[in-house]
Amino acid sequence: MYFNYNIIRRFFIVTFLALFFLGCSKEKEDILKTEYAAQADPSELYSEFTVQLKGNALQKNEKGSWQIAKGKLMEKFVEIKDPDNPNTLFLGLPGEEYTLSWTVTHSNKSTSSSSVVVKIPELEIKIEEYTPDHFQTIRFFAVDEKYKDIGKWSIDKPVGHLHSMYHDGYFRPNVEDNPTIEVHGFANTEYEIKYLINYGGKSYRFSKVIKTGNYQEDEALHELQMGRGTSRVVEDKNRHVIELNMQASGIAYRFNEVESFPALKAFTYLRKLILGGSSLRDVPTVFGDHYLALEELSLDGVGKDLNIPENFGNLTKLKSLHLTPLYSATENRTLKMPKSFGNLSFLEYLRIEYAGNIDFNGTLGKLTNLKTLACTVTDIPNDFGNLKKLESLDIRAQKAYLPASFSTCANLRFARLSFWNSGSSTVSLPSDIDNLTKLDTLEITGEHRMQTLPQSFGNLKNLRHLWIEGQSLQSIPDNIGNLSNLEFWLVAGQFKTLPPSIGNLKNLKYLWLSSSVQNLPNEFGHLTSLSYLNLESSKLTTFPETFGQLKNLKEINARASTITHFPKSFGNLDGLEKLDFNYSKLEKFPESICDLKKINIINLNGTRIGKLPEAIYRLKDDVQIMLYQAIDVDFVQLKEITSKRGGLLFYTDQGYIH
Predict the structure, then answer these.
(1) Measured between alpha carbons, how far is 567 from 569 in angstroms, rounded to an integer?
(2) Higher confidence at residue 24 or residue 9?
(3) In the chain, N or C: fewer CB atoms in 10 Å?
(4) Of 165, 194, 214, which residue sits at a domain end?
(5) Beta strands 138-142 and 655-657: pairing type?
(6) How far apart are CA 71 and CA 273, in angstroms?
(7) Both 547 and 627 in a single domain?
């Protein structure tokens, strides 16, 4: 058979070209299309109650609009954010189903619509707990912070308190309104922790059930905003907290509010607690209920009008107690101790100051291990003598009374007795005061009307410091010179002289002489260790001739004394550096001063000076002589003296002359 290949080839070419142009004509027709039927694709969840709508894109001269065709409506809680935007957001109510229609108005004014069904998920909130492993009663919970403006926490049972550390710059007066919460619960209690939301007219509740354990020491530290590993917290080898230093702490008031901060009950191993200068308001009951291992407690400078709770006597291991209010109590306030205070039989150190007049209520004599006692009392109780181990006593009593048993405190080394508001009361030292063989310091001040010292007083061989104020003492025992170790003497009274035995006080360094004394025995010059002598307002007119033997005397204060002249031996005081005879009765400048080898300051203000003796030129260099308001000063002579020699400086009413 014969085929014409050219004819066949032309046929295929024509056919191909026809199909090609037909295809091109179809594609051109689709591209130029200007109207599409409305179409809405399934929506996507955008956020909690919001979905992203998906309508088809609008063409030129087309308009579109979303509408809610079906579903529960509620103003502000159900809305289409931008109805004319095909990809707008839709906000609906949780758990509700909505039918939304997307309607397009085409350029030829015809319309087409498409619908989509939207399901808003149910509200599901997860309560997360992020409590540290070692916490059992303080529990930490949180929800997503996006609920912070619509949610609220609730607890089914009472708790100590709630707290939140959440901050976003907005003030929320109620802790429960924050998305995070600390529940400070009570021990071994089951709680239902609830998070409540009111949204769209509907209430939602989500809960978590927990069971607390025992109070933990780390939780107690958390309540006090403290942590381990600092110098303020001391632990034992088992990591129990045994010491807390909360000096000046502003958070210490929480001990007074233990029902709000119950984890503070956990410090059952605590031995030492320092709260001086802190915000503590009173002596807390939590101490006597839970801190039974406590040995040292310092409450110095806390609270006002402090009281001791009845359970304080449970602290039977307590050895040291220091209690002083921040604000001093009034003089007429009485602080009465509970009967249980007598249970503190291990107490060795007790200092209660400015808290009022303590009424020990029959408990003081039971503190048989007491070594140091400092307090203010209405009166010194008769059972005071039971304190056989007492070494230091600083007591201020309203009534001037000292029980006979005082002398049985044979270990006493320091005794300061101050009496006030005692009226006509008279205090007497026990006749066997010499039983206090270890007594080193005795001070008796205030209104005591003591008239005599017992003869046995001279047997206090270890006494180094003696201070007796008042104007009632009539005499000094003849054997006072037996106090061979005495270094400090301040004894006031009405006695006019001192017994000769005073010269035996070879160790006496500091002496305040009673203003009643009118003359001194010659033995006074035997006080070879005397360094300071105070004769202020003394009725002496001169010193004994032996006075010049006081080679170690460095300073004399004889202001306003009646001394008129010095003995010749005065110039032998080789160690004297300063003398003060301000406004004394000196009749002239004592010439013997000019022979003093170490004198630096001579104070003669207000005295009668007159013309200075020629011996003034013998004075050592660098001496200051005070002559303010001195009588009969010859200023011409002073200028002449300073012009002839240097090293002297006169302070006068006319200024410095040197």
Answers:
(1) 5
(2) 9
(3) N
(4) 214
(5) unpaired
(6) 67
(7) yes
Lowest mean per-residue pLDDT among 35-44, 72-81, 156-165: 35-44
Number of domains in the chain: 4
* Res 417: pLDDT: 94
Determine, yes or no, domain membership for 522. no
Residues facing residue 551 across a β-bridge: none
Please name the residue that has the structure tokens 């509200």. Answer: 123
3-state class percentages of the chain: helix first, strand second, coil last, to nearest 5: 20, 25, 55
Answer yes or no: do 48 and 21 share one domain: no
- The CATH number of residue 113's host domain is 2.60.40
Instruction: For residue 373, tell me if it sits in a domain.
Output: no
From 162, 190, 214, the end of a domain falls on: 214
- 100/117 Cα distance (integer angstroms): 6
d(CA 223, CA 569): 74
CB 541 within 8 A of CB 517: no
Q: For residue 517, tell me if it sits in a domain.
A: no
CATH of the domain at 597: 3.80.10.10
Q: Calculate Rg over the CA atoms of the chain.
A: 49
Per residue in 425-438, pLDDT tens?
Answer: 788 899 999 999 99
Tokens of 414: 């320091």
Q: What's the average model confidence in pLDDT over 297-324? A: 96
pLDDT of residue 26: 43
- CA 121/CA 627 separation, integer angstroms: 102
Q: Sort strands 233-235 and 241-245 into parallel, antiparallel or unpaired.
A: antiparallel
Quick one: 169 and 72 in the same domain? no
Q: What pLDDT, in 10s, does the model give residues 239-291?
A: 999 999 999 999 999 999 999 999 999 999 999 999 999 999 999 999 999 99
- Give the tokens for residue 485: 């170790």
- Using CB atoms within 10 A of its CB, is residue 15 exposed (0-12), middle (13-18) or buried (19+)? exposed
C-alpha–C-alpha distance, residues 184 and 177, integer Å: 16
Global pTM value:
0.82
pLDDT tens digits for range 375-395: 999 889 999 999 999 999 999
Pair (569, 552) in one structural domain = yes
* Sign of torsion over alpha carbons 584, 589, 595, 599: positive
User: Sheet containing 111-119: which strands, arranged edge to edge?
Assistant: 63-70, 97-105, 111-119
Residue 653 CA to residue 658 CA, distance in Å, equals 14
Report pLDDT for 34.
61
pLDDT surpassing 70 at residue 22: no
115 and 161 share one domain: no
Clarify whether residues 542 and 657 are in a common domain. yes
Strands (DSSP E) contained in 398-439 are 414-419
Question: Are 57 and 28 within one domain?
Answer: no
Domain range enclosing 10: 1-33
Q: Which pLDDT score, from 0 to 100, does residue 401 have?
A: 87
Chain mean pLDDT for the chain: 92
In a domain, 495, yes or no: no
Give me 489's structure tokens.
């003497």
